[in-house]
Design a protein that fits this description.
mainly alpha, 8% strand, 65% helix, 4 helices, elongated, two-stranded antiparallel sheet
């Protein structure tokens, strides 16, 4: 099976001590984004207790929970599992299972973000609530976007096989 390189990008060469610090910094940034996302959501939850215009229900919790689950699933997969070239009836099919699991994790992340935007539109924008109540819906979108960005940052800093090269390959 021939491989077609879609994008080949040589990243700048960094000293090995900087690479370790960059991985640590990326992990901290990812954790900060995760924390900020949930903190903003809980702030909206606390603010919703002071208003009676909109009820804060399970549908408001669901996008954040989906994104958190998607982040856990996506970042539990090693990049080397996705590059297994074994094909046939006798192969274990580990690469296919890893790709399916990665797809499910990414679908959960995307579904969480899309769900939060849909809830913002249906529950807060269409009824034309005032801006103080609109903040509660915006916190849901901010939360899911922060969780998505945290997942992306964590994926890239922990799954770099080569320290100075990153390839996108179509099989």
């Amino acid at each position: 099976m021939a491989r077609v390189f879609v994008w080949n990008c040589n990243l700048p060469r960094l000293p090995s001590s900087w690479r370790e610090q960059l991985r640590d910094l990326g992990t901290y940034i990812s954790g900060a984004l995760f924390t900020i996302g949930w903190w903003v959501f809980i702030d909206g939850l606390v603010m919703s207790r002071s208003t009676t215009a909109v009820n804060f229900g399970f549908e408001d919790w669901l996008p954040g929970l989906l994104c958190t689950l998607g982040m856990i699933i996506t970042n539990s997969i090693d990049l080397t599992l996705l590059r297994d070239d074994g094909f046939g009836y006798s192969s274990g099919g580990l690469a296919g299972k890893a790709k399916l699991t990665l797809f499910i994790g990414i679908a959960l992340l995307a579904g969480g973000v899309a769900g939060s935007v849909a809830i913002l539109a249906i529950k807060y924008i269409v009824p034309q609530v005032d801006s103080s109540v609109m903040y509660i819906g915006v916190t849901n979108v901010v939360q899911t976007v922060c969780l998505l960005m945290a997942s992306v940052v964590l994926w890239f800093v922990h799954n770099s096989e080569h320290d100075n090269n990153y390839n996108f390959v179509l099989n």
